[in-house]
Design a protein that fits this description.
Layout (H helix, E strand, L loop, with lengths): L6 H9 L5 E2 L6 E6 L3 H18 L4 E5 L2 E6 L9 H15 L1
Amino acid sequence: MVEKLTGAARAKALKGIKGWRKVTGRDAIKKKFQFRTFNEAWGFMSKVAVLAKKMDHHPEWFNVYNKVEITLSTHDAGGLSALDIKLARAIDKIASA
């Protein structure tokens, strides 16, 4: 089972990701992405979906036209885990490609 990040490990992990913000009232992080077109946003979401399936860790997301908002939290751990940080980094890499 994946363990919830706490203490110094949590602080270090959060410093290693840019643009991800804590979600008020939840032990989760989120980030908003904006693309030029709906097709670019959808393509990004498709790439993230394939990655999430491989990791067996699925994000919560919301999409309107060219905007995508992603929230990450590990339900089995009861909050933020190293798996969320790993997925956040991979999502950022996809977005910058």
